[in-house]
Write a structure and sequence with these properties.
The complex is a heterodimer of chains A (about 120) and B (about 140). Chain A has about 120 residues and is of the alpha/beta class. Helix content of chain A is about 35%, strand content about 15%. Chain A has one domain (about 5-105): HprK N-terminal domain-like (Udp-n-acetylmuramoylalanyl-d-glutamate--2,6- Diaminopimelate Ligase, Chain: A, domain 1). Chain A has a 5-stranded mixed sheet, sandwiched between helices. In chain A, helix 3 (about 55-60) runs parallel beside helix 4. Chain B is an alpha+beta fold and about 140 residues long. Chain B has one domain (about 5-140): Histidine kinase-like ATPase, C-terminal domain (Heat Shock Protein 90, 2-Layer Sandwich), CATH 3.30.565.10. A 5-stranded antiparallel sheet of chain B has the order 1-2-3-5-4, covered by helices on one side. Chain B starts with a strand and ends with a strand. The chains are: A alpha/beta (about 120), B alpha+beta (about 140). The interface of A and B includes residues 33, 54 and 55 of A.
Chain lengths: ~120, ~140
């Protein structure tokens, strides 16, 4: 699925990385714990979170993620958006809650990947 | 054999918002140098976890990355409180991070085990009351 389709499914507003909306992603994860994202996540293209700090973008960058969706209308800071633009990460915000946003993506073909890469 | 490429960073322990910035820089440099994505990911995740730990637990320190033909060595040194029980600290889920750190999305007790997982070797030299030096190697 293209990142712009995620935007449409979640009714989200794109805040950074607009030039990368055509990139394809197939998997996603949802967490406010960046420690867990670093420890348990593998090859996920999208991070869904309600946490606001620069480490969210840095963590996504470390994990080679392509898109961060902030839920519950959480608004990232200018510093975060600048960092995301530097890293080529698409950032969007949605008024949906994390559970609902995850459910919408899951029911549209997204799934988490396990350590060995299986869906 | 070509000369090793070296990077040195001072990690500011007083400002959590900058934690992880050195790792982002290293990732960018390694990409520019053309290293394979899986190597870059291992190095950057291991360094990032260590850098965050230095800010959370040790009021910052220094981070050095040395890239040679055979390996990438990451050395993280701090003058923090030291690790009283390394074996316990290496257990997944064990954390001494306070609630305020958990609210920032860290402190799940996965940092050190993750650093070991993503590197080919990891050595912890620590003295309680003096500080900790962690040396990690990723083979090329």
């Amino acid at each position: 699925m293209k990142i712009k389709e995620i935007r449409d499914l979640l009714g989200a507003e794109v805040l950074a990385g607009e030039e990368n909306l055509e990139n394809d992603v197939t998997s996603a994860c949802c967490s406010d714990m960046m420690s867990d994202v670093l420890a348990y996540v593998k090859d996920q293209g999208v991070l869904i979170t309600g946490l606001i700090n620069p480490q969210v973008i840095r963590t996504a960058n470390m994990m080679d993620m392509l898109c961060v969706v902030f839920v519950r209308s959480k608004t990232p800071t200018d510093e975060m958006l600048e960092l995301a633009n530097e890293c080529g990460i698409v950032v969007m915000k949605s008024d949906k809650r994390a559970f609902e946003a995850s459910g919408i993506l899951y029911s549209n073909g997204f799934a988490p990947k396990t350590e060995d890469g299986n869906v | 054999m070509s000369d090793a490429v070296k990077f040195h960073f001072e990690v500011d322990g007083s400002d959590f918002s900058s934690a992880g910035a050195a790792s982002v820089m290293v990732k960018k440099k390694l990409r520019q140098l053309g290293y394979p994505p899986d190597i870059i990911r291992k190095v950057s995740i291991a360094m990032y976890e260590g850098e965050i730990n230095m800010v959370i637990h040790a009021n910052g320190g220094t981070a050095d990355v040395e890239v040679s033909d055979e390996e990438i060595v990451i050395t993280l040194s701090d003058r923090g409180p030291g690790i009283p029980n390394v074996e316990l600290a290496m257990q997944e889920g064990y954390s001494t991070a306070r609630e305020n750190i958990r609210n920032l999305g860290f402190g799940a007790g996965m940092g050190l085990p993750n650093m070991k997982k993503y590197t080919d070797s990891m050595k912890i030299d620590t003295v309680v009351g003096e500080g900790t030096t962690i040396t990690m190697t990723v083979k090329l």
